[in-house]
Amino acid sequence: MAVIPLRLGEPPRQLFAMLQPAGGAAPRQHGVLLCNPFGQEAIRAHRLVRVLGDRLAAAGFAVMRFDYYGTGDSGGDDTEGRLPRWIDDIVAVDAVLRSRSGISRTTWIGIRLGASLAVAAAARARPHPERLILWDPITDGAAYLEELASAHASSIRAGSAGLATARRHSRYRTHPPGPDDEALGFPLGESLRADIRDISARSFAQCPSPMTVISSADASPCCRVPTQVERSARVHRIASELEWVAISQMRSAVVPSDALQAVNDALGAGP
Amino acid sequence: MRETSLAFGPDGNLVGTVCVPGGAHRANVGMVLFNAGLVHRIGPHRINVRLARSLASTGIPSIRFDLSGQGDSGRRTGAESFDEQVFRDIASAMDALGRESGASRFSLFGFCSGGVHGFAAAQRDARIAGLLLYDTYFYPTVLSRLNRYALSIRDRGLVVAASDWIRRKLAKRPAGESAPVGANGTESFRTPSRAEFAEVVLRLVARGSKVGVIYSGSFNGYNYAGQFHDTFRRWRFGPRVTCDYLPSLGHSTTILSDQQALIELIVEWTRELDAFLRDANAPP
Q1: Does B145 touch chain A (CB under 8 A)?
Q2: Residue B181 within any structural domain of the chain
Q3: Residue at B180 is within a domain
């Protein structure tokens, strides 16, 4: 499967992106843009995003996946992450996908925070994306911050549980357990926290593009699908339980087949 | 600093990002960074990206890349073994970094199980002048065992610790049975014996390479500063072999200050290697 690594824009603000040209016997005039979740979740989801990209490219879609500014392999420091900038990134990378692939129709797939960003970016893109596929979108930013805080505190406790020395014990006892400024290995400064806190279901109701929501079993409270979203979106519930921020799962990849099938169904990408 | 993302290798299947310092300074060594377990080339918590940029700020270029079939890299088309494929991938990464930066000698950083790939590659490719292993191989000593029992008793109490110890002894492999190979059935995931490890290290040092090991505080298997020295005392490694024990560092470097401490240590180690190679290459 051909892949084309790209660095978009000018240094030092370049974005890393990976273009997968449409493959298969019958290329479609349709592109798919994949929008990552945040921080440790993006690392855990990397395999999923790649597998999704491979399958969609093989089914004839031009696929673009990328890292927001200050994340992954893109330019910028981790402390520079802000949601408005990441929303701009989605719009800009979508334009590159369209121009490089010679297509006008795109569907965006967003995971967790990436889904919320995709909803906010859809109103800004011209033309709007044809459809948004939102996998466990964050619909309550304050609840998401609480989830991150809880997971981070658990990770600190887990780090102090299997220790080797008394010094390590004291180190972890004295380190603040809450994510005052970090979450599961990534900076989470006040500005970014304020951006996230503002996320609510209101923006979903104003989204100009049709939405399909993929909702995992036992999705956390921050991903609850509110009534107003249920009214305006197709909601596809899957059986897989995905603990996106579970510390016990930090080193594992996640590629649930029912979610991939739900994406295929939403795109009409089946054989 | 300039970063270039590229596809490379004989099959064009490997994906990586080269990070080259700005300015005219020509480094004597380039750093090669790759996967840690399932994590793609950016490393746990993006540590490889920050490490690459820190190295570039001191004039040292690097490549961070995904091994075949991992991260963004595709599978190789050949029928070679996994170990052979990893070796060829690392060699291809050194070729790519050499083309982009002019470096002709290289250092490998292996994070956790990634170290086994570095250990194997360094034995086969003389361009590798530096090998840095983080929490890769553990060799107990009498003192580390005593420490371990003491820690176990302190943390869990005498009764639980003793019953665990008895259970482990009953489950122990019969004497003489070799350690199992890795979960994927490859030879390279086997922990080399002390003598094997020492022999390799001495060969690398004899050809002018530098070897470093770093241990975090997360594992009971390494629990005091002099453990590496005590283990390999009779082989007299000398100053070209270093060991750093960071007892306050968590293995996964989840805390940001842990990440910074590890990055600073690796940058300093690599700068010393760069200076050594510069002096070694200087005209008399």
Answers
A1: no
A2: no
A3: no
